[in-house]
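This part of the workshop introduces the protein records we will be handling. An example says more than a description, so a record of this kind follows:
>
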Amino acid sequence: MKFKTLMTIKAFVCLGFGPVLLFFPAWILGLVGAAYCSGAALTAREYGAALVGNLLLTWLARNVDQGVSRRAIIWNLFVYDLIGLVATTALILRGSLNPLAWGIVAVYLFFTVGFGCFALHREKAA
């Protein structure tokens, strides 16, 4: 997969979930079986803000040339998605989220593998 394609897919995923978490946290938390309280709403909205930030990063940087900036972006997104993968899996296994949350794990896994491949691949100088 090309870097631009992966970044574009991530941008659209973030566009789909970021605003929903910002404006409708109770609805999305209810979908995955998370208990809703003011703390959960705050966390969901902060996560929505992070997704909007990722949306802007991935969309605006999708055409970035190979180099230090691109490597920094790749490593940032790889670590971000890896942490999300581990944290969401742990919540599901603990029983805090319902089986629908495995879809979130699948998304994190896709991006962790995708950005991981770019992180481990040494790009040739142009």
Summary: The chain has five helices and no strands.
